[in-house]
Amino acid sequence: xxxxxxxALAVGAALASPASKKRVVFVCGDHExxxxxxxxxxxxxxxxxxGLTCAVxxxxxxxxxxxxxxxxxxxxxxxxxxxxxxxxxxxREQVEEIDRYVKSGKPVMGxxxxxxxxNYPPGHELAEWNRWGSxxxxxxxxxxxxxxxxFGHDSSTDVSIAPGAAGNPLLGGVAAPFHVRSWLYRVRxxxxxxxxxxxxxxxxVNPNKPxxxxxxxxxxxxxxxxxxxxxxxxxxxxxxLEPVQRLSVNxxxxxxxxxxxxxxxxxxxxxxxxxxxxxxx
Length: 281
Known about the structure:
By secondary structure, the chain is α/β, with parallel strands linked by helices.
């Protein structure tokens, strides 16, 4: 074999190797919405049909494990971090892994309760992390902060394309309007930031109190310069819907600064809503 041909084959092998693929790390621990079950199914599809390498790290011993997500060092090798967290109280060394990643300026995505990822008690040395969602995603700075609440578990949401967003490539193939089971989160009037791009709005159906239209998906640049996509959707029944799946796949590629890929069809994500279930002592 000539040295030129050997070199060409070596280059081709390197380009085809998993090491050359973009790496997405999913970080899960949300008590209620089974992110530890839905996101691995999305990750598997990304690996199978979209040329990405994925890793999933989860709270232990289960979704109610608020103080330990082993494996966060995986973020050191990530090209994109996707978060689905709720009211964690992680130790400093684990929080520092997240902090290091976000401050690197790499892209971040967040689903639903990641707006209130942390819940340290008053006076705790890490209590400032309770507002992390506002810094990472442009979401409200924690639950009940700046009016961040929802419109009742018996409600659901009609989703429509935001004014001016119809031609946004992130919405390519996203058939809207559509209906989701997620009860609408209030983020108005202060969030997302004025320099965010709102993609989708939601209107509460059967709300338990007067409900104004609220953004449910947007993009942004955080202060570290990282691309951001955040959505307040994320009920497990939402992930069964093709519009939500296509939005997720589109935005993952956008975060990675990659062209949108050909849609490979509906992903089988049929996870039942669990609600808040105490399973640990």
